[in-house]
Amino acid sequence: MGGYGDVQLLREDGLRLDGRKVDEMRPVSIQAGILPAADGSAMVTHGLNVAVAAVYGPMEAHPRKIQRQDRAVIDVRYNMAPFSTSDRIRPGFNRRSREISKVTAESLESVVLVERYPRAKIRVEIEILAAEAGTRCAGITAASVALADAGIPMRDMIVGVASGKIEGTVVLDLDKAEDNYGQADLPVGILPNTGEIAFLQMDGDLSPEEYDLAMEYNFKAAGEIHEIMVDALKARYEESEN
Amino acid sequence: MSQGLSGAEQRLVTPGMTIGSLTGMRVGSGAIVHNDEIIATKLGWVRENNGTISVDPINSPYIPRSGDLIIGNVAEVRNNLWFMDINGSFQGLLPMSLAPWKVEYGQARQHMNVGDSSLARVQEVDECHNVVLTMKGVGLRRLSQGAVIDVPVNHLDRIRGEGNANLDRMKETSDCRIIVGENGRVWVDGHENGIDWVREALDIAKQHGHKSSFDSAMKKHEKKFNKKGDA
Amino acid sequence: MPQLVPNLLRQEVARLAEQDARIDGRERFEGRDFTLETDCLYNAEGSAKVTMGKTVVYAGVKFEIRTPWPDRPAEGSLMCGAELRPVAHRKYEPGPPSPQSIELGRVVDRGIRESGCIDMNSLCIIPGEKVWGVMIDIHVLSDGGNIFDACGLAAIAALRTAVVPAERFDVGEDYTLPVNGTPIMASFTRVGGRYIYDPCEEEELGGDERIHITIGDEGHLHSLQKGLRGVFTPAEFAEIFKVAQNKCAELRKVVAEKEAN
């Protein structure tokens, strides 16, 4: 969080710079099964973010030392394409990608019935094609839809959403400017059916009351995104009425 | 849940959705119990049968079960065993003692080499998912001719049809030998036109396998072959 | 991990070849249905998405300002790279760029560079001080066969829609990157003993060596590459070169039509 300094992020009328209300999220659209080579796949467009996820497996975990005798491991790679940001990113892993991959894998392991596949690994590849704040959340959402599309058993899906604080006001779903100049960001992964939380990060400055409000916004948005996820999965298979 | 008794109900659900309550219902495959509620764990259609509620998945990986007839490809040969790719999470292991030939130690490669395909049965799957295959049994053999065509595991029932009716019709129309492996591989052998026709028929199954348009698409395809034959 | 090639697949493609047929029902020199979409990615200065059968590829163009090489003070630079990440197929593994992805990037790079469609002098801002570096990154998301042609098409389509972000770098007004030409690649794989155009995944698995031909607007060759184990005769090349001329001209027309809309 850069701190708000001189940058104005809320308009006089109380709306945000892009015209959204404080508790309004950017438009979200989802497609399932877009990558034919994968066992399951999804594309999530969240605002201007584009996240693609592919799932392969379960397959034998290699090398042997990563195998777990009692369950499958989920091997997540979160990667930003070189052209996904304003300044080109040199290809290759970096610390940020590694951290996001790790916590995303652990949150997915909390919903996938990993004990069904001892010694196996499930590969989840998250590729960010365009980034405008909120890519890790879009990536988690895409990964969930791709896992469901691949037929991997899960006790719930995970919806990635974030709220934050700009100019002392809690708002849902930060865009790029709000992320750069805001005061806090609270990305979470919510299980829409059980209401549990599998992914949690935060940076910045939030009072206990602000945290509660940000979480309230996140849960509201998770419900909305979950409907879009379900529709995307159904659209692939449900027959049109004719 | 009021329409649940019909059995023919086609309700598409996604993982995490509640599909019933535990009172008076049993949990079948593709579902788990959480807080006395029955939750879907897969994308698929809900099915209620004799008080058991389950989800028929739309897409799922092949899970080997003891007794499955499968088509495997040799991936690796050792002195006394073959490792076979069986389209599952793990390779299957065919020991020399379960091969249909009398094999001398170190001679396994002479009977079946990397890249060869064979018709085998799953002998045993242990709790660690180790799969042991056997080729001892009627009809189990190395496949040296014909074509192997991949199909989704979840469409196998549809491809076979009620009491194999659909499969029998395909065999009759194409005049080909067709063997459906439980692991999503179909072996076809016979006249060239027949093989090509079966490949197209299985393509239709891939596209329409989960839709009600499947039967009509297959019928249309059957007519196409007859026309070709008359010409 | 090298993929297992079932002998029955090689036999089957050979059998089909004798009937002059293909495993997916196409004619010998028939391409798959494809789609081309441009300007599809926010943050890329030029972008394109290509699907060819089960293959899905994105390309994005980025610009940077750099100091020119001392011996060429008024010339900018162009670089094209490809990534074959594990997202694209179960056969790809994580790790540093594979020889295969480097080959892919360099073959596409040569076709574009050698066609001369980018005048390196036009990328000069201040001679000896500031020039534009143009970078095309190709990202394969689904490898369903013949990623070379899909990458070549995505790269040139993305480049042709690129806008130079001069305002963001404080060196004047944004302008469309001048691109004089549309080099197009056509790829052939030997399957069942003879070359076919635009191989699908099964044909690549059950086939042998491949030849990639990039042709410019005037019908001239700009890059050639033979890959994988195998040999071919001059007569075989003459045949596919003719086919490539037609295929490239057709695709070039599609790119032009796309831009006109």
In a nutshell, what does this entry contain?
With 231 residues, chain B is α+β, with helices and mostly antiparallel strands. Chain B has helices at 108-111, 156-160, 165-174, 192-208, 214-230; strands spanning 11-13, 18-21, 26-27, 31-34, 37-40, 44-49, 52-57, 69-77, 81-85, 92-95, 117-125, 131-134, 142-143, 147-150, 177-181, 185-189.
Secondary structure: elements and pairs:
The complex is a heterotrimer of chains A (242), B (231) and C (261).
Chain A: E1 28-32, E2 40-46, E3 49-60, E4 73-80, H1 95-109, E5 120-130, H2 135-149, E6 159-166, E7 169-172, H3 176-181, E8 184-190, E9 197-200, E10 203-204, H4 208-237
Parallel strand pairs in A: 4-5
Antiparallel strand pairs in A: 1-2, 2-3, 3-5, 6-7, 6-8, 8-9, 8-10
Helix pairs in contact in A: 2-4
Chain B: E1 11-13, E2 18-21, E3 26-27, E4 31-34, E5 37-40, E6 44-49, E7 52-57, E8 69-77, E9 81-85, E10 92-95, H1 108-111, E11 117-125, E12 131-134, E13 142-143, E14 147-150, H2 156-160, H3 165-174, E15 177-181, E16 185-189, H4 192-208, H5 214-230
Helix pairs in contact in B: 4-5
Chain C: H1 7-18, E1 34-38, E2 46-52, E3 55-66, E4 77-83, H2 99-114, E5 124-126, E6 130-142, H3 147-160, E7 163-164, E8 175-176, E9 184-191, E10 194-197, H4 201-205, E11 210-215, E12 221-227, H5 234-260
Parallel strand pairs in C: 4-6
Antiparallel strand pairs in C: 1-2, 2-3, 3-6, 5-6, 7-8, 9-10, 9-11, 11-12
Helix pairs in contact in C: 2-3
